[in-house]
Amino acid sequence: MAAATPWWAPHVHADRRPFLLGRARITAALRAFFAARDFIEVEAAILQVSPGNEAHLHAFATELVTPAAQRVRLYLHTSPEFAAKKLLAAGERRIFEFARVFRNRERGALHHPEFTLLEWYRTEEPYEAVMADCAALLAIAARAAGTGRIAFRGREADPFVAPERLTVADAFKRFAGIDLLATLGAPESSRDGAPPGDRDALAAQAAAAGVRCAADDSWSDIFSRVLVERIEPHLGIGRATILDEYPAVEAALARPKQSDPRVAERFELYVCGVEIANAFGELTDAAEQRRRFDAEMAEKQRRYGERYPVDEDFLAALGRMPPACGSALGFDRLVMLATGATRIEQVIWTPVALPPD
User: Fold this and answer.
1) pLDDT for res 4
2) Rounded to whole angstroms, how far apart are CA atoms 248 and 302?
3) Which of 212, 199, 191 is nearest to 285 (CA)?
4) Is the dihedral of CA 149, 151, 154, 157 positive or negative?
5) pLDDT digit string (tens) for 30-82?
């Protein structure tokens, strides 16, 4: 089999260059947005003692050797979130970063092992402020790319129309006929080590909706499968969708919603069926955060046979962090949608090259 043509081949680069120039324009426009609102651009260290503590994220590990020949295991971060929140604890109030992040076991049309997250945080401001930011950034990116309509895989959306706001429970009812809240347990039950919800009840409703479940699927496994198969294809069609109020058990870094603690202040932004941002009203209870990390790492151990350390420095800072909200936006995906690219590697200046077989 012939080797793939490298990205640096002049004719390949010429095909990609319009998308890359669009990326540069979008970057400048988004920086101007944040600067006009008194955000400070920061730079989080990539090497961290913990890459993050979500069960299904896989990190790149490395080793630091000190001048005294001590060997310390470190990781390339999967998000700048821990470092950013330490800066909020230190006294910063509005920050953003175009962060290079790293996730293993991820590569495809919408995934790349090294990519860019645009993360930003606001302290002492309502969760809805980040929703407004997401809508504004989508419109700014489209304008910078010179497009009035976003299209991807046969779906279209107007980036200048206000997003639809839809709760996860309403989406499950509308698109899958599932009463999700009826399957959720009380928040205190999961703190006592009980399952997060009625797994069998959710499995029965999922099966009725045509979603196959394995015998060893957990409540969270079934939730994710329904979301991917039955919900996501309908989101962000015609206009963007803000999918809000995730179950608290699916929002490890978000605070519970005061009016219904079964759900959390977490939303995702979808455009043309593609998730491009994940946002939280940030949890600041260090003891609860530790409990959630422990639960996530127990699930990671069960599923993948490994676990990552907890960043104790992060938990110490979390106890001093003011109320905040923040978002992680997949910048490469935003550029893809705004410029009309079909694969993420078209909008990355130097994609990660794989060795020849």
Assistant:
1) 80
2) 21
3) 191
4) negative
5) 999 999 999 999 999 999 999 999 999 999 999 999 999 999 999 999 999 99
> Where are any strands of DSSP class E within 23-163?
40-41, 47-48, 60-65, 71-76, 94-102, 114-123, 150-152, 155-157
Q: What is the mean pLDDT of the chain?
A: 95
> Running DSSP on this structure, what letter comes out for residue 100?
E
C-beta of residue 285 within 8 angstroms of C-beta of residue 269 = no
What is the rounded CA–CA span in Å between residue 188 and residue 283? Answer: 16
Task: List, in sequence order, the alpha helices (H) in 103-208.
Answer: 128-145, 168-176, 187-191, 199-208
Radius of gyration of the chain (CA): 21
Q: Which residues contact 172 (CB under 8 A, 6 or more apart)?
A: 178, 179, 180, 226, 230, 231
CB neighbour class for 327 (10 Å; exposed up to 12, middle 13-18, buried from 19)? buried
CATH 3.30.930.10 for the 10-163+236-347 domain, yes or no = yes
- pTM to 2 decimal places: 0.94
pLDDT digits (tens, 9 = 90+) for 104-129: 998 999 999 999 999 999 999 999 99
Q: Both tokens of residue 311?
A: 């960043």
Identify whether the C-beta of residue 319 lies closer than 8 Å to the C-beta of residue 3. no
Q: In the numeric block, which tokens belong to residue 321?
A: 């962090």
Best CA proximity match to 240, nearest among 125, 340, 338, 344: 338
